[in-house]
Amino acid sequence: MSPNAPTISELIAQERRLTLPHFSYDDAYALGDLLVSMARKRHAPVAIDIRRGAQQMFHAALPGSSADNDAWIDRKRKVVERYGESSYLVGTRFRAKGTTFDDSSRLNPSDYAAHGGSFPIAVEGAGVIGSVTVSGLPQAEDHAMVVEALEQFATTLDA
User: Fold this and answer.
1) Residue 34: helix, strand or coil by DSSP?
2) Nearest to 116 by CA among 39, 35, 5
3) Can you give the pLDDT at residue 158?
4) Mean pLDDT of the chain
């Protein structure tokens, strides 16, 4: 793990801090648009996905991304759906135990990937209702882009 990688407690604090007062269709579009804008400015070859439950509310594929990024999105998102935590946090918990998600989770790595980039969308009073996922950069950067976007987005919401 990188010396600059967030700790388990820092990852948990991100999730607590980024619980939103609400999350609508318009919110999904605004968050997705923000992520696309960030990615374009950085020339980041990413795909972006936002879901509420089983419904895909936003998807974008930027130049340099591929269908492989969509497959990674699905695998990372399934970790969020199963654990209710970011895919990066889940993977970090396994690494902290001296193992890997693939070796110890008993889940098929073709279906699940505990790599950074998928983050739970949590709403006050409702809990985790969906996910926002970025794929195309190294896992720490995918995760950081999602967190940065959620931090900016959260400041625009009224309670």
Assistant:
1) helix
2) 5
3) 66
4) 95
Owner of token pair 């793990």: 1
- Options 1.10.10.10, 3.30.450.150, 3.30.200.20, 3.30.1250.10; CATH of 8-154: 3.30.450.150
% of the chain exceeding 70 in pLDDT: 97
Packing angle, helices 139-154 and 87-96, rounded to 10: 130
How would you class 107 by CB atoms within 10 Å of its CB: exposed for 0-12, middle for 13-18, buried for 19 or more?
middle
Burial class (CB in 10 A: 0-12, 13-18, 19+), 80: buried
Identify the pLDDT of residue 75: 98
